[in-house]
């Protein structure tokens, strides 16, 4: 047996105390080898490669990655701005890295982190394992379909799989970092929506939801209210949502689209951003677009008040949430059955889901726990996220749904 780092064999070796699969002649060798060994140590199904071979593969990894494509798969508008900053937008070659400066955006910094040599180094074992599985599935399917699978075909397919897999894996890493930040933020105890701490000018009495609505939510896990807003607000919202769509603000959820889970587009709107935009602050193109969305701000204001109101009237223990999600369903798009939260490993922290319908027709439906409900304009739906499954079958006409996810603990009896 040889030392996993320096390959010495004529000395006493000590095993890794965690996995017992790698051996070292000194603690220094173990320390120097840790970056390579760490991902393998945590997964017994991964094979550990010699350092020299890992370095060779790392160079291949870097040669094939394209940071512009990674940014594009996350945020198209951000990708266009990145392209304009690099060679005036006329550059046709791949960018393997990002030069950080005072104008670098937070997304670019995050992409720069996951495309650094040290970070890529830790991904190699699991990436090889995942990519080989994808390639083998394609190979089997190709042969079943009668494709001539010679050496040249195999080489071309492998290169295409490799290119695509790199981008998809790094997008997943970036999104994962975003989620960790959000989870860390959401678990802060100071964010509990104490009714006494509510100081906004909208819903000052914390009394938008009637007794029947609260009772339906608590007893049946679901309730809805029609004619939620006044006529002018309800009918002005569709035009504002259309403007945001025309401006290219909605983004597809690529990972789920590829898996045929959903084909809709989403736009997250933070309360402080839309407040500033409608208030006259136009520091970015998004601010300018949102400055015309006075009716959308009304939804944001009401949504922000709901955790405080529900905590006043129930013992749900909900947290303050300052973001809502506007969902665009074009004709034929869908979102398959899903739960916004669950229990155990499936618990995202989401306790209450609110849905407001923005539509010019009544021809679309939502299915909640497999029971269809018509998506009527100006209808507000509220449900328990851990108790209800939701699906949007392919829509016949364009519709927008405004979601608000409120975090909170599982009920004690659950």
From TrEMBL:
Keywords linked to the UniProt accession: Metal-binding, Zinc, Zinc-finger
Coiled coil start-end: none
KW Protein transport (keyword) present: no
Domain (MYND-type): residue spans on this chain: 3-41
InterPro entries xrefs: Znf_MYND
Pfam families xrefs: zf-MYND (PF01753)
Source domain of life: Eukaryota
One annotated GO molecular function: zinc ion binding
Protein known as: MYND-type domain-containing protein
